[in-house]
Amino acid sequence: ECYVQNTAREYAKIYAAEAEPLEGFGEVPEIIPIFLVHRPANNIPYATVEEELVGEFVKYSVRDGKEVNFRRRDSEAGQKCCTFQHWVYEKTNGSLLVTDLQGVGMKLTDVGIATLAKGYKGFKGNCSISFIEQFRALHQCNKFCEMLGLKSLHTTHQRQRKATSLKGKTVPSSPAVKKTLPRRAREPRGFISTEH
Q1: Taking the CA of residue 74 as centre, how many other CA atoms within 13 Å lie in the half-sphere pointing to its CB?
Q2: Would you give the distance in Å from CA 136 to the centre of its chain?
Q3: Tens digits of per-residue pLDDT, 157-188?
């Protein structure tokens, strides 16, 4: 627990160093430190200690990425948490994602980390790889993603889907030539797929 949260905290510090100087970005989410305490005389010899967060506790993202959370989408803290996730995802080339972001205001605690099966630079997270896939499919960029110059994940995801859907799908264009088209290319403009 300490290792995961303090690893995420280090990413948050680098994120803050890049985001805070940007004009108009403002305050950046902070992951509070957590400490392991050894109490040899106690029945439970180990405990974790962290700063007490006073105020309304909000979940800005959830571990499995499926829950629709309006606080995440509509609040500044929630948008900046989503941008932080996107930033970490991009910095690690899609190999690591900080998830389960929750806390009071911009102070976050009890976060999780998902990594690809092989881990990332020797680190293995405590969440399933499926969280990375779900994040990639569900993340919607916001103004803070744009301020940091982050690339849209939907464009990347759509390209991957296009490459996958090209396999085995043919549409005749003339009797002699068959063209392979992705299903998305046949959908009317403005159509929103709910396949995710």
Answers
A1: 5
A2: 7
A3: 454 554 444 444 444 443 443 333 333 333 33
* pTM to 2 decimal places: 0.74
Catalytic residue among 64, 74, 100, 110: 100
Number of domains in the chain: 1
User: At 97, which CATH number?
Assistant: 3.20.200.10
Distance (Å, whole) CA 135 – CA 154: 10
Does residue 53 lie in a domain region?
A: yes
Query: Is 74 among the catalytic positions?
Result: no
DSSP-H helix ranges across the chain? 2-19, 70-74, 76-91, 130-138, 143-147, 153-165, 183-186
Distances (CA, A) of 57 to 11, 35, 104: 22, 21, 5
Domain extent, residue 14, equals: 1-148
